[in-house]
UniProtKB/TrEMBL annotation:
InterPro entries: Methyltr_RsmF_N, MeTrfase_RsmB-F_NOP2_cat, MeTrfase_RsmB-F_NOP2_dom, Nol1_Nop2_Fmu_2, Nop2p, RCMT, RsmF_methylt_CI, SAM-dependent_MTases_sf. It comes from the Bacteria. Residues 23-295 form the SAM-dependent MTase RsmB/NOP-type domain. GO terms for biological process: RNA methylation; RNA processing. CDD domains: AdoMet_MTases, RsmF_methylt_CTD1. This is NOL1/NOP2/sun family putative RNA methylase. GO terms for molecular function: RNA binding; RNA methyltransferase activity; S-adenosylmethionine-dependent methyltransferase activity. S-adenosyl-L-methionine binds at residues 111-117, 135, 180. NCBIfam families: nop2p. Signal peptide: none annotated. The active site is at 233 (nucleophile).
Length: 432
């Protein structure tokens, strides 16, 4: 039996009453594991028809499925590297459906790393509208960028700023805001003993203070009739109902639409808290849109690459930042004053007399968008060799080639004299 903190146990007994013993018994059960299918790359039906894993549907997420981590390791499957699915704790998948996302929405994920909610939001937006995916932690924001890149989303701005800094820019701007708040992590106890060691009641109170500030900042960034969803993976009343009730008492124009707890003794999941609210007052956003200089001669090498290696034309807000070329979102607000990791889709780098495509571009494209494709079988040694960064013998010399697994992009290679030089990013290369 897991050795749980005494103060935590006392609080749970007070909250749960007769259900307390059932709650304690749940800690003898194995942790739950799930994956969520990326609809930007494949439909649920087509993925299931591949028959890869023994999957069971998650009732609150039509794209989500349980898997048995003792039977399979989907995190070590090349399709995971291709962004075909995302590994996510099942009860955490209950949050994003509460946002009621519609194509064209402007959405803020204010505490986004490592990217579970943001990738889900991006798939719901389906390339439309705007997602501002923010993470204040300088280390965690790197994983956020990698996961969004893997998903193939183009309409995402990744920021690395505080809620205070975001509020200065985005007052009254967003249609939907999600706060998956930093918390004391009590819902992690069953799967992470480190979370138990780190837990103190002082941490609960410290988190509550941060959570209350995040809600107040988010309130000011929410548009008329905007939806605000607050969630945690903790059970403490102080961080859940108390935080929400205090927030509602300060803002009469906010209506509580829905509030629920997912308990591990009631559902197959580690536990979550979700509150959905709506702003009823009228708000006027004065946010200015970015002005992008029309590029012509500066991107001739990119246009040459596009003509020679792609079957499509990439059109829209092309923006140069140094030598890096981006496809900025159609909804592109001015971002002066906040730290931006990525503004839209990174297309690649302009080098001396040539253009080098980015890893992000490879994941955005479909196999039919590219002239030259080297497709690998899922269970092949060659697929793993590519992910390890090894060269491949292809027998051709076609220049830039999109390397795919079962038709899903993994990354770029450059062919010459029958050898494909590997351009899979060094920081992502697998070691197993």
């Amino acid at each position: 039996m897991i050795n749980l903190p005494q103060k935590f146990l006392e609080d749970m007994k007070e909250i749960l009453g007769e259900e307390y013993d059932d709650f304690l018994k749940s800690y003898k059960d194995r942790k739950t594991t799930g994956l969520r299918i990326n609809n930007l790359k494949i439909s649920v039906e087509d993925f299931l028809n591949m028959g890869l894993f023994n999957l069971t549907p998650i009732s609150w997420c039509k794209e989500g499925f349980y898997y048995d981590d003792e039977e399979v390791r989907p995190g070590k499957n090349p399709l995971h590297e291709a962004g075909v699915y995302y590994l996510q704790e099942p009860s955490a998948m209950a949050v994003v459906p509460n946002l009621d996302i519609k194509e064209g929405d402007k959405v803020l994920d204010i505490c986004a790393a490592p990217g579970g909610k943001s990738t889900y939001i991006a798939s719901k937006l389906n390339g439309s509208g705007l997602l501002v995916s923010n993470e204040i932690n300088n280390i965690r924001v790197k994983a956020l960028g990698e996961n969004i890149e893997r998903f193939g989303a183009k309409n995402v701005i990744i920021t690395n700023s505080s809620a205070r800094e975001l509020e200065k820019i985005f007052k009254g701007y967003f249609d939907k805001i999600i706060i998956d708040a930093p918390c004391s992590g009590e819902g992690m106890f069953r799967k992470d003993e480190g979370a138990i060691k780190d837990w103190t009641y002082d941490k609960v109170l410290e988190c509550r203070s941060i959570q209350e500030e995040l809600l107040d900042r988010a309130y000011n960034m929410l548009n008329t009739e905007g939806i605000l969803v607050y969630s945690t993976c903790t059970f403490a009343k102080e961080e859940n109902e108390d935080v929400i009730n205090n927030f509602l008492s300060k803002h009469e124009d906010i209506a509580l639409l829905h509030m629920e707890r997912l308990w591990p003794h009631k559902v197959k999941g580690e536990g979550h808290f979700v509150a959905k609210m709506k702003k009823n007052s009228k708000v006027e956003s004065k946010l200015k849109m970015s002005k992008i200089k029309k590029l012509t001669n500066e991107i001739k090498d990119f246009k040459e690459f596009e003509k020679k290696f792609l079957n499509i034309k990439i059109e829209g807000n092309l923006e140069l930042k140094g030598d890096n070329l981006y496809l900025a979102p159609n909804e592109y607000p001015s971002l002066k004053g906040i730290k931006v990791l990525r503004s839209g889709l990174h297309l690649g780098t302009l080098k001396k007399n040539r253009f080098e495509p980015s890893h992000a571009l490879s994941h955005y494209l479909k196999k039919e968008d590219v002239k030259f494709v080297h497709n690998l079988k899922l269970d092949s040694k060659e697929a793993m060799d590519y992910l390890r960064g090894n060269i491949l013998n292809t027998g051709e010399s076609r220049g830039w080639v999109l390397v795919t697994v079962e038709g899903f992009p993994l990354g770029w290679g450059k062919e010459s004299n029958g050898i494909l030089k590997n351009h899979y990013p060094k920081g992502l290369r697998i070691k197993y």
